[in-house]
Write a structure and sequence with these properties.
Length: 250
């Protein structure tokens, strides 16, 4: 009988998600082991069970029933900043490849019939961009926080696909397929004062209701104007993300 815990956190950081930071059902991993005093005087510790890179996990195939994949989400953070100490950071040049390898490693060590929970904050990289790096598509997800920039995605490893996966490895899908699948997921939209950045949104004012693309910097293209304007200057309300509008086929 295996003595390996049944839950994996491959990039645990300070274990901020965990109610019990010493939960014996889980194995905690991170590439760091360090201690800090944060700007507010609090003690912060990264103390994993195993120091390793989430792109190359030191576990056999099909080891865990549940995996919580909460990788660093920052590209820009000061070398000595408290935010980098708490959350870590990604490589600006290789982040997409690194996240892709990390997801595939998590999928490799996930048991058939197991669940992978993915958490992402899109303050610097949109969820759409990140999901396009992954070789699987989420079953369902949820958006949290007032700004709606933190996302939880649930992936399920179907036991019925075991024989196929053993024969051919991961199902390869390209970025366009991933985006199409993601956009096809039905979801309820709410009108808010802030749009989803890096995505298409419905925009409305007293006279109009049209789709607009909002860039990561919060700007929007306006017809007949050369420069973009900020969504705050445009006013109105937003609901998104939505699929990219397409012209009707002739």
């Amino acid at each position: 009988m295996s003595t390996l815990p049944q839950v994996l956190d491959p990039c645990c950081g300070g274990k901020m998600l965990w109610f019990n930071k010493n939960d014996r059902r889980a194995v905690f991993c991170d590439r760091r082991r360090e201690k800090h005093i944060l700007c507010d005087g609090r003690f912060f510790e990264v103390n994993p069970d195993t120091v390793c890179d989430f792109r190359k996990l030191p576990f056999p195939d099909k080891s865990f029933f549940l995996i919580c994949f909460d990788p660093p989400h920052l590209l820009q953070a000061g070398e000595t900043s408290w935010i980098k100490k708490k959350y870590g950071s990604l490589n600006r040049l290789t982040w997409s490849e690194d996240l892709s390898k990390g997801f595939d490693e998590c999928w490799r060590v996930l048991k058939p019939g197991g669940t992978l929970i993915f958490k992402w904050n899109e303050t610097q990289i949109s969820l759409r961009e990140v999901l396009s790096c992954f070789s699987r598509r989420p079953v369902f997800g949820h958006t949290t926080t007032k700004r709606r920039d933190t996302h939880w995605m649930t992936f399920y490893k179907d036991a019925a696909l075991k024989a196929v996966e053993e024969g051919s490895g991961l199902y390869p899908i390209n970025s366009k397929e991933a985006i199409t699948e993601w956009n096809s997921i039905p979801r309820a939209l709410e009108w808010t004062d802030e749009p989803q950045l890096g995505a298409w949104n419905w925009w409305k004012d007293e006279d109009s209701r049209i789709p607009r693309y909002v860039y990561q910097d919060g700007t929007v293209d306006i017809v007949m104007q050369i420069d973009r304007v900020s969504y705050q200057d445009l006013g109105g309300q937003w609901a998104g993300p939505i699929p990219e509008p397409r012209e009707p086929e002739e």
